[in-house]
Structures are given as structure tokens and as C-alpha cells.
Amino acid sequence: MSSYKNILSLKLQWVLGVLCIFLSAVSYSATITNARVWPAPDHTRLVLEVSAGVEHKLFTLNNPSRIVVDLSNAKSLTDLSDLSLKGSPIKRIRTAVRNNKDLRIVLDISRSVTPKSFTLKPNQQYGNRLVLDLHEKKTTSNKPKVVKSVDQQKKRDIVVVIDAGHGGEDPGALGPGRVREKTVVLAIAKELQKLVNNKPGFKAKMTRNGDYYIGLRQRTKLARKYNADLFISIHADAFHKPQANGASVYALSKRGSTSEAARWLAKKENSADLIGGIISLDDKDDVLASVLLDLSMTGSLKASLGVGSHVLQSMGRMARLHKKGVEQAGFVVLKSPDIPSILVETGFISNPSEAKRLKTRKYQKQMANAIFKGVYKHFTATPPQGTLLAYQQYNRALSSPKKYKIQRGDTLSGIAKNHQVTLSQLRRENRLQTDIVKIGQVLRIPAS
Ligand SMILES: [Zn+2]
Fold first, then answer.
1. How far is the CA of 39 from the centre of ligand 1 (A)?
2. Which domains are present in the chain?
3. Which residue among 139, 219, 278, 287 is buried most deeply as judged by most CB within 10 Å?
4. pLDDT digits (tens, 9 = 90+) for 5-31
5. In this structure, how many other beta carbons lie within 10 angstroms of the beta carbon of residue 101?
6. In 317-360, where does DSSP find H-type helix?
7. What is the 381 CA–ligand 1 centroid distance (Å)?
8. From the CA of 164, how far away is ligand 1's center (Å)?
9. What are 132-148's pLDDT values in tens digits?
């Protein structure tokens, strides 16, 4: 009996021992394999590459300001204190082991931020990630608004908001030789920014200036904040077949715009927003609101297709086109109801020869140039009200000579008198050798 007990206890010990070995082998269920910091103007993103299913807790401590992330059953295989923190509110990152198995990460913070954490699923470049966003606290300025004179208002700039796709943790499409869409499109966007800013009467605003990610809705919000006359999102395509090639331009699809109108109304997200800066939907009933929104979206869509075809034509002179016409799809960034918006696919980064070209500064400049030519052509044809371009065209129309067709009984002096110009002005403008005019002859009337 006792020997049996001994055997049993021996067995139990053995089982416990194996269990212990097993437990210690899996004791770190989560590991941090890599980490990155992406400082952006309004937030800083700390990304920890972790194994799947990591549990974490986030809290803040004051005096001094710290943000603490506790990971249960975790250890870091990378030295977090080595990360470059330049441009971020993080002064220092420290780690410590707690309860022999948990990992505590402490961020020493230099200014007040609001932390938020979430996990990201694997993408083509990275695995599972735990993301910590530190949002800068908004400072509400009480600066009085500058009231512009009527003359200044008349001559406002055309605002082009340039949106370089992807960024930060989202590399976009990857091409041969590790060409990344996010890098190529930012370079093209910056070239385009220069061209726009160099043109009198135009002003460029960027949704992102560096390598960080901005949400899609945030990009359209920025367009509204900057009072965009045009929103251009810049991308590079990828396809599983390397043969696919060519640039293309997209506008929002009709279905995308219709469902967007429904979404806006349903969510009343627009309660604080102005549609087109004029129509507030707050004080209108829903039917009227939907009609107004529909009109606004139809107008924007028409303008988007117009500017899109100018850009496509212009790109067709320097690059191969994927499709002959402007395509339409339900891209989220194109869904501003009141801002003409296009998305330019500058080429297929998955195509080896296009990827090679897209990488070069020369081609990036050419591409930006082609896009701007199309944009400029569109706006000279239809300058938005109140802009310098509209003002200049109005003045040009005023100063350009009117035309007059000679009727029966007209005399040169009579025509001069009727148009409040002198006879000699009329002679000079039309290079007349004689004062005899013929019926049907067309005279240019100089501006008086
Ligand atoms: Zn893209």
C-alpha cells in the first residue's frame, strides 16, 4: 500500500515537474520583437510588434507625467530605450519586469497628451502590433479672427489640398526592390506642393508632411478645415500581375456619393459642418436637406470629373495611361460632399519598369508637373468665385476689346460716340486708313 502511494506521489511529482517545465517554456506568451515611433503634427504613434493575443493595460501617472503600459506574460526582445524619440513628447522609455513575468513599459512625457491604445492585425509588411497613440492636447486659441477687406476677399487663393496616400505603419503597395508607395507618393506630393505654391493665386496644403499615418476620414476633415477648392489624393497602384501598368484618375462613384449623402444625413455628422460653407443643414427639414446635399454632391462630382479628365489628359502626354477615361469608385477620401476630389494613381508600383521610374526624382517631378498642368487648366476654365484667378479673368474680359458689326447707316464717328471712345482710338485699334466702313465689317471697340 505504502509502496503504491510512493509510486503515486512519484508520478505526481513527475507530472508536476513536466507541467512546471511546460509552464516556464510558455511563461512569456507574448514577446515584443520590434518597435517604432512615428511623430506626426497632432499625435505621436508608438508601435510595438508583438505576438498575437497580447493582453495590455494602459494608464497614466502624474508628477512627473508618465504613461504606463502593462503587458501580462510578456518580455521585450528589443531594447526600447534605444528608440529615437525626436519630435515626440516622449522623453524616455523604460521597461521593468513585474511579478517575474509581466512587462511594464513606462514613457516619461514632456507635455500633456491623451494616450489611446489598440491592436493592429498583420499587413504585408508587419505582423501583429500594439499601437499607442499620444494625441497632443488641443490648445484653444482666443486670437481674434482677422477680418479681410472686400478687396482681399475678392482675390483669395485657390486652395489645393494634396493628400499623399498611406504613411507610417501603412506602407501602401510594395514594389520590386522594396519601393514603397508611401515614400513615392509623398515625394510626388511635395513636388506638386512646390508647383502649386509657386503659381500666383494658388496655395497648397498637405494632409501629411512626413512618414506617419492619418485616418481616411481625417484626410477629408483636413480638406474641409483648409477650405479646399480641390482635394487630390496621390497613390500608386499594385496588381498581382506585374504586367499591369499605367496611370489612372478616379472620381467618386455615383453609388458612393449617394450612400455618402445617406450616411451624412443619418448620422447627423454634419450638425456642426457647413455644406459648401453656406448651407447649414441644421435648420432645414430632412427632405430639403437631402435635396441640397444631393445637389452639392452632384456639383462636386461634376467638377471632380472635369478636373480629373484635365489631369488624365495631361498625364497622358508623359506617361502610359491605364484607362482612357476618368474612373469612378467609392474611395473614402473622395467622399467630401462639397469639395471636388480626385484620386491619382501615378502608375503601377508592382510593374518593375514603372516602379523603377517612380523611384526617380526626375519622374516624380514630371508626374507632379503633369498633375499641376491639368489642375491649372481646369481652374483657368472655371475659376472658383472670389479667387484671384476669377478676378484676373474678369479684368481681362473687361479690358479686352469688344466687337461690333457694322449695320446699315452706321458711321465711324457714330460708333465711336455710342461706345464712348474717340475716333482716333477707334482708328488705331482697327488700323483703319479711312473712315469709310462697310456693312457686315467687324470693328474692335477699345476699352474706354
Ligand atoms: Zn494607395
1. 21
2. 30-136 (2.60.40.3500), 151-385 (3.40.630.40), 399-445 (3.10.350.10)
3. 219
4. 455 454 555 554 444 444 444 456 788
5. 15
6. 352-359
7. 30
8. 9
9. 999 988 765 555 545 54
Mean pLDDT of 259-288: 50
Tell me the CA–centroid distance for residue 180 and ligand 1, in Å.
Answer: 10
Q: Cis link prior to 383 (omega < 30° from 0)?
A: no
Q: How far apart are CA 230 and CA 340, in angstroms?
A: 5
Q: How close is the Cα of 361 to the center of ligand 1, in Å?
A: 19
- Name 184's Cβ contacts closer than 8 Å, sequence gap at least 6: 236, 346, 349, 358, 359, 364
Interval between CA 208 and ligand 1 midpoint (Å)? 14
Q: DSSP string of 65-85? A: TEEEEEETTEEESS-GGGS--
Report the separation in Å between the CA atom of 188 and the middle of ligand 1, taken as the mean of its atom positions: 13
Dihedral sign from CA coordinates of 76, 82, 86, 91: positive
Say if CB 300 and CB 336 are below 8 A apart: yes
Q: How far apart are alpha carbons 131 and 50 in whole angstroms?
A: 10
Cα 428 to averaged position of ligand 1 atoms, centre (Å): 59
Q: Cα(171) to centroid of ligand 1, in Å?
A: 9
Q: What is the pTM of this model?
A: 0.69
